[in-house]
Amino acid sequence: MNTADLELFVRTADIGNITAAAVQLDMSPAAASAALKRLEKQLGIELFIRSTRQLRITAEGERFLLHCRQALSSLDDAKASITEMKGEIAGEVRLSVSSDLGRNLILPWLDEVMDNNPKLSFQLSIGDSLADFYMDKVDVALRYGQPEDSTMVAFKLATVDRVICASPDYIATYGAPKKPEDLLQHNCLLYQLGSKTYNQWELVSKNSGNTISNTDDSIKSRSKIKVSSNRMCNDGDIVKRWAVAGKGIALKSRLDLSHDLNAGRVIELMPGYYVEPTSLWLICPNRKQVTPAILLLRDLLREKCQALLATTK
């Protein structure tokens, strides 16, 4: 049974469209249709119910899909294991990274990977918008927030809490907010991505034991504050730099702020409240991109991020 046919079947089931799956796998629609029919003939079952308007997976196809995913995953792990045994991590990785992580954290980590694997190279793209994997020719992206597209392969690296902070100079001049409503009197530096401006800050009061509880609403209250600012940028790194320079209060991930928090360039504010955490993911467009180099990068980033986060608690 051809593994390429299995890959096509999984992709078609995820997308619900043979033509779209074929485009993603660099196949013609005719070749994709023929491959699925070949697979159905080998199995002796109908995998999809086809009509002029829709494609629907059958009950037999759903059952086979589960085992097919497991088989492809095991095959990927086996390939990676053999490659690791041979000690060969090579090739080029086209990596897209958000602005703050890319400029301030990840560069020395990539140097470490490349120093230990001289046959490995990186092509780095920095920007906060999630790259179009196919148009931009990106192999893997490092981004906050779990991807909504279920066809992508995503590895969670860390859970990252978000911090409200300001520089010592700003606090000395304007004071520190104590409760959510106080933020209305401050210059809250704003981040914008596409047409969305992140000016709604939702804060949750900590419980009496001063520990975070995300489930018990009886011991916490939420406040959603619409903040304002004279500064707005679509680059998260710039927002952080404004905060360090004393231009206002920022809401940033603890990971992005880690070096500045440790150095005292910014100070965490409002200890009686917290903002719901986010998560950091390494995202690939499909299973074919999950190479030994990507798995090596995943493991190193997971280790580095969690170690760095531990230093700022």
Automatic annotation (TrEMBL):
InterPro entries: LysR-type_TF_proteobact-type (IPR058163), LysR_HTH_N (IPR000847), LysR_subst-bd (IPR005119), WH-like_DNA-bd_sf (IPR036388), WH_DNA-bd_sf (IPR036390)
Matches recorded under Pfam families: HTH_1, LysR_substrate
SUPFAM superfamilies on file: Periplasmic binding protein-like II, Winged helix' DNA-binding domain
Domain HTH lysR-type: 1-58
Top-level taxonomic group: Bacteria
GO molecular function, one term: DNA-binding transcription factor activity
GO biological process terms, semicolon-separated: DNA-templated transcription
PROSITE patterns the record matches: HTH_LYSR
Keyword annotations from UniProtKB, A to Z: DNA-binding, Transcription, Transcription regulation
Family from the record: Belongs to the LysR transcriptional regulatory family.
Entries under PANTHER family matching the protein: HTH-TYPE TRANSCRIPTIONAL REGULATOR (PTHR30537), HTH-TYPE TRANSCRIPTIONAL REGULATOR SINR-RELATED (PTHR30537:SF21)
Protein's name in the database: LysR family transcriptional regulator
Lineage start: Bacteria, Pseudomonadati, Pseudomonadota, Gammaproteobacteria, Vibrionales
